[in-house]
Write a structure and sequence with these properties.
heterodimer, A: 181 residues, four-stranded antiparallel beta sheet, 5 helices, 13% strand, B: mainly alpha, 17 helices, 69% helix, 0% strand
Amino acid sequence: VKAPRHRLYGLMAEFHAPADVVAAAQAAHAAGYRRMEAYSPYPIEELAEALHLHHSKLPMLVLIGGVVGGLAGYGLQYWSSVIEYPMNIGGRPFHSWPAFIVPAFETTILFAALTAVLGMLALNGLPEPYHPVFNVPSFALATRDRFFLAIESRDPRFDEAETRRFLEGLSGVTAVAEVQP
Amino acid sequence: MARVPDDRPDDIARDALPPPPPLPPELIAGEHTFGSVTEKIASLTLTRRTPLWWFAGFAVSFLLFMGLLWAVVNLLFRGIGVWGPNVPIGWGFDIINLVWWIGIGHAGTLISAILLLLRQPWRTSINRFAEAMTLFAVACAVFYPIFHTGRPWLAAYWLFPYPNTMGLWPQFRSPLIWDVFAIGTYASVSFLFWFVGLIPDFATLRDRAKSKPWKVAYGMLAMGWRGSARHWHNYDTAYLLLAGLATPLVISVHTVVSFDFAIGIVPGWHATIFPPYFVAGAIYAGFAMVLTLAIPLRKFYRLEDFITMTHLENMAKVMLATGLIVGYGYMTEAFMSWYSANEYERFMIVNRMTGPYWYMYAALILCNVVMINTLWVKNLRTSVPYLFFISFVVSVGMWLERYVIIVTSLHRDFLPSSWGMYSGTAYDWSAFIGTIGFFLTLFFLFIRFLPVISIFEMRTILPEAELKENP
């Protein structure tokens, strides 16, 4: 009995220069591939543009986080100083809003910053203990000096032989590897 | 402009932008590639051989740290009477050192956040350890407000808003509670900023580590970072947003710390100049500490290629600029005391300059006004030994500034019957030197186990990273 053939995660092309991977990502997008991902050891803005990535949802999340933080901080102070534990000190108003601004500002920043970090991790799907791309031995260099473009087998245009030919034909490509699932 | 018709709109939009300014070549000395930068910085952490100087430095720091333990044990068993503060000087080393340490921390955030927003590429090789310095300095700072209560486990209910069985809530109108929120937020956000910056470098260490335990440890910290374009897209956005959030935060923190004084009615404290003057002083002291740490670090780790003379000189310039603002603050204080026509204010400034603590004020002016102006001279500004020396002068000067502000303002109360003198006890000094030991202990651990320079950001400033042509 033949062992069931596992479907590949995809094919991965390796590059040595940042300009090559950007050009490759543009070419792959132009060729109609959509389910693909490029990897680089440092952020390359052009690469995100070449893949036509949508604007990050993060700024909106951070705004919401900041607003919630500000309201929570102010609300806590209002509730504890006016409702729960009012202290009459020389007849001064319980709702001393100028004093409450300082902690409310700090909670705004705190909640917004927490949202930025946790939101970034969540949008990136981290922590992620396993990912198929790590099965390619040379992928360890993706955090050093190599650039990769991986086209997933889930892409409707993916065909093992055809896509391999396409990747091998790109300029600057040094190797094309199968990514085991 | 002649264009082939199949050009996509985003290409044209990008070409319409002016090209980014070329990087000054002196930010990285020598020939470096993505690989060599990665190897150099990662090998400092991943090498099996710990250098001898590391053990020597760690041992001395740890010994000093034990002085803190001795002081704290005495404090907890015998009470806060072992410390120097007493009527009329109710605040002593505890608040002097709190302000000193918090101020030192500010340079880290300035470098990592404000210089990022201002697009200063020279921040790249110093931001990581400056951020670590911020975290450790804040850790030293919070020691004082926690332990000056004597029994910190009994102090939680008036510091933190939590539903306690006594039904009590903190007094949110007090600057001391603002401090809790400001410093708590500052410590948290500084940690987040530092940790987010480390994630891609943890991934580099995970992929470079040879031994299984380190691979697992760095792998857990990297959380599965792959450096995909989607990752970087969200990452850059998060990093920029954090910088934007940390910028007003860092300004607010020392402003709130200055409110501890400025909100009170004590002559010498009750001044509107305090917030800007404290913030400038904080950045000034912080850059001095960055220099104190950077100069031996580049020497012992042979990082002269990455932390070049340009970096040191730029830091000296920031120190000079903020030092002049601090000097302006001293002048304003003196002028406003005279201009206020308030006899208590006038007495305070004359007493500060000529009273029993005149030598403290004179030393402060020597350090922060006279000595700092030597940095106008380019030969001195570009001399590594002199910069190392001046960084200590500034640290001492800023400590004296807080001593002068706190002690001389309190020691002559409104009534001569409540006049007094203050000096730190052996426990005060031991706790202060102990926090320096704690700070250095943490710093030595940091430089051994984590990358001292942000590897992925160094890659972005290499000439190799320039996209020569966009096809």
